[in-house]
Specification:
This protein has 61 residues and is mostly helical. The protein contains three helices and no strands.
Amino acid sequence: MDTFEDPIVNEVREIRRQHAERYDYDLDKIVAALQAREQGVRDIVQPPPTKPSTTTLRQNL
């Protein structure tokens, strides 16, 4: 049985490998680098507001 090769998964794995290699595969260094990068990010994705349930709508009438 042949396995399916997904090019997107392969690309993500290669990027992860390169990132780990950059920090000598040291998990503490990798996490610190990601946390430092995260500090500069201002765009926070927020989920859309939830729709009120019909029960809530009836209570407000």
